[in-house]
Each structure stands twice: as C-alpha cells, then as structure tokens.
Amino acid sequence: MHRRVRLFISLGLILALGHATDAGLTHASQTSPTSSSVLDSPSHYLLYFPIAMKETVPPVQAPVLKWQHAGCYSSWCETGWYASPAVADIDEDGSMEVIGATYSLFILDGATGVVEELIDPPGNREWPGVVVADLDDDGDLEIVTAHGGGYVNVYDHNGISVWSLQPTPGNELRSLAVHDLEGDGDLEIMVASTRSDYQWFVYEHNSSLRSGSWPQHGPDSDSNGYTAGCYNENLAAGDIDGDGRAEILGPNDTHYIAAFQDDGSQILAHSMYGSNKVWSRVGVHVDHAVDLRGYAHCGSEHRPNFAGSAPIIVDVNGDSVNETVVVGNVYNCGTSPYTSLYEIPYIFNADRTRWIGSGFDWTVLPTPDDSAEPLSEDWNVIENNQPNPVAVDLDGNGNLEILYPSYDGRMHAYWLDKTEHGNWPYSIYNPVEDDDRFASEPVVADLNNDGLAEVIFASWVEKHTNKTGKLHILDYLGNPIHEVDLPLAYKGTWDWNGALAAPTLANIDSDPDLEVVLTTAHSGFVAYDLPGTAGARILWGTGRGSYLRAGHP
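^ thats the sequence. predicted structure below, dont judge the formating
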C-alpha cells in the first residue's frame, strides 16, 4: 500500500506565568519590557517549542467494477478501437451520459451503463475519439464522429443528425478534432484521411469547407513539401506562435511534418533550413545536423516515420509559449524493408527548430535503452501500438513530463532533462509470459490530491491467447499501485481482449468520486469506480487531452 505523510511544523506557545529564576529559564526567550500584555514583568517568559503535526494522506484506493458489457448485444459486442469516450449531460436531464463509438454511436446512462440511444452513423469503424462540444455557441452540445469510408458526422444533443459529409470516399478518417481557430466563439471541425494527398480538411460548424487553401496537402513538390497518409490521430490545433489564432500540425506517413495557418497556408520553417522552406519541406532526422543538411546517409543516419504520430501542443516549461511534441518511429532507411528501431519524442518550436529552454536542450534527442525495439508491428499478431503523447507535470515542479506508450511494450515518461526517472519506463509486457502486451494513451490525475500525479491507462494482449488486458494505476515515478484485469471477451466470441483507447476520467453518477470509463475491444464499454477521489485534480482526463481532441487539455 502506498501511503504518503505530510509533516507540518508549528510553534507551541507556553506561557510561564509564575515567577521563575533566571537559572531555570536559561534557554527561554524573555519578553520585551515594553510589551503591553500580561507579561509586562521581566519575570514572565515565553517558551516556544516546535511541535510536529502529522497528516496522513489517504492512499489511492483500488478501482471497483461499476458496470460492464454496456452496448453489447445478446451474444456479441461491436469491436472497440482507439476511440476514447466522452462524458457529458448531453440531453440536459441533470444526469451524465457516456458517449462512445465503435462502429455505432452509443449514448449510455452514466450511472448504470444502460443504452439510452443507439445510432447507426454513415461509415464504418470509429478510430478517433468522440468529440462532444458546443460547435455553434448556442449553449447546447453536439457530437462529432469520424469513420472508415471517409465520413464525418455531426449530431445534436438529442442524437439527431445535423449533417454528414464524405470528403474521402474509400479512405478512412482516423483524425478528428475541433477548435476555435480564430477566436470567434464557434468551433471548426478538422479531419485527416489515410489517403496520400489532400488529407487534411477543415469545416465550419455548418458543414461548409473553410475558406482558404483547404483541403491540404498537395501536390508534393520540392517547393510545396512532402506528405502522405494519416494513420492515427495525426493533427493538433493550438496557438504555437502567439498571434492569438490557432495553427494546425500534421505528422504523416513520411519523415516530414506539415504545419498550416487556419486558412490552410503552410507555415515557414526557420531560415537555417533554407530560404522560404515550409515545415513540410524540412525532413526530420535523429541528428539535427542531418536536418540542416537536408538528406540522410541511409544505414548510418536514421530518421523517424510519423504515420502513427499524434501531435500535442503544450507549454513544456511554463514560459507561456507553446511547443509541439510528437513521437517518431525511428527507422533504418538503409534496409529493405526499413527496420524500425525505437520510438522517441521530439519537441519543436513554432519555426520548426528544435526546442531549447530553461536549461534544457532538445536539439539532441534522448538516448533510448537496449530494450526499445518493437515487440511487434504486425496487427495479425497484436493490434498496433499508437504512441500518443501526453504532457503533464507529474512531480509538481512546474515543468511537464512527456509520457507515451511504445511498441516496445512499455509506458515511457521523459523529464525535460531527457531521462526517465524512478521506475520509468514501465513494462506492460512480461517476457516470462511471452505474450505481447501494449498500452493505451494514458490519462493523468492526482487522485488523492497529495501534489503528485497518478498515471492511469489500459492495456491489451496478443491475439489467440484467451487473455485480457488490465486497468493500470501507477504513481508519478512509474511504480504500480493497482492493476486490475479487464473483463474477458464477451461470451467467448473472441480469443483476446483489452482496451486500445485512452480511458476517460469523469464523475458519471451522483456520488462525489470519479469513475474511469473504457472502450474495450470485445466486452463493450466498462466503468470502474475510483473511491476516495472526490478531491482529485485531473491533469489529462481523456484521449488527446479534452473532448475537443485537439491535442491539449
């Protein structure tokens, strides 16, 4: 059991009101003769003794299963992918609903998990997290989903379709976010597709394509830059240059990152990379000197692929300037096929330079250890890891740490000094069992309000193992506090289970404590009570940071 103790030192005041000899009070403090109090006489003394008072911070309690199999049918459940659920009083009836998507869109009663509404949207599976937000600033919430087949759908707070578009027929939309790009009070909707060009679209809340250069990006050229498909939640929106308007970042299936103004025009990189080069024209490598040169000597100089890279926009050191954090899959481009080596985070400034600040220098990347190679990249063996980063202050020192799950079967946490402290990285994979296990994007909260954060995530297992993943709660140094088995696959319909999507932390019922809600692969939606969390501080509470899914809280 992990129990932390706070120690407070106070001063006890003891009044010696009787006459005492100087010899008996050699170590006492004599009051001033001019004091106007009952201690006017120099024969009265004040004695100060330090008194230690102990307050025990309650430990983080074990999660308790609240409900399971929500949304399942009589003999099977729809497969859950990477879509993090949302929680809101969507119908304004005074109670919270869980809004989640697999292939269908489910609105569940938060307290019981009972299905309130089941919607069959256009399109196939839902990969990105469900968006719940007031798109048009009218006081009511809307729901936004994006699907296989290239559909993006908007529903009102009653679950009625507002509009549906298919910008990329035959290509999946795996990226979805909303953001108020220009600060006018209503939200724009951003999606990105797996197709190789014109992947990024921005729509106004009324379904019209945003004016400017949307969709992006194309065509590829030496002046216009290079991009390819977006195979995960490959966009983030936020103000990276301090102009009061949001920019959009787009890693993709290349070693380039695209960056756009809200009108779709591309953002220039620093002139050190060449004259008038946009972000998508400056390749990313391990060694910054290779970035400056502009090409790699494959075999000895490695570079990352960003096909599955979800960017975030955060202020890592508290100087009120945002940075972009993205995790790249570093590979050897001198082999055929390419050989994946490890996943590592990058931190970029608004001008595409690598971040330096507060005594930290990320021009040179962290050095991975000898266990960083992938366990698997074959979804036939185990569904793929997605290295979605999270940036939070784990230890309360004012700087953000960067967490992400990796294909090496571990959850990583890098401090800005480019090292992993304590028990990080934490291994979900147990080589004794010899079954691959991967972790979801984490959420982070100070569950017992002791000033130090806990990290909460789910895991899933290799196929054909008849096993299930876990709900994990770790302390800020990566030590396990609780690990609870998730339900097995519903009625034996599949031979593995777990949860690929980031959990969501929210209060879904009438008690004061938080719950954690999960979209499992083969047992529907599941919720756990988190006893003793009424005073918790949520730092990163759902997939991609918020129900806007824009890559920050």
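The CA atoms of residues 134 and 141 lie 4 Å apart.
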